[in-house]
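Hi F.,

I've been meaning to write this up properly since the lab meeting, where we talked about keeping a consistent format for the predictions we share between groups. The idea is simple: the sequence comes first, exactly as it goes in, then the structure tokens exactly as they come out, then a line or two of notes. No screenshots and no reformatting. I'm using this chain as the first example so we have something concrete to point to.
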Amino acid sequence: MTVKEYNKTVGLYSDNVFRFILKNIRDEEKAKDIVQDSFVKLWQKVEDVEFEKAKSSLFTTAYRTMIDLIRRGKKQGNWNEVSEQSYSHQQ
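Output, unedited:
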């Protein structure tokens, strides 16, 4: 894919990818981050992706990035849910 085709891909699909991710995670800021990460990943392999397959590659990348973010969030947990006794000690 050429730079011109990449730029055309951004124009054609960025809004659609954003709406797809936003519909699934319902967090606008995270959706924006996922879309940006997806386009960065597409740019990193721009020479390997054909323009005709850019849409498919982009949506697949965005979906996988979203799943990774969700999985990381589940592993990390919520700091507010941890009791004070579990992270402090008595002397």
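Notes:
The mean pLDDT is 88.
The domain at 3-70 is CATH 1.10.1740 (Rna Polymerase Sigma Factor; Chain: A).

If this format works for you, I'll send the rest the same way.

G.
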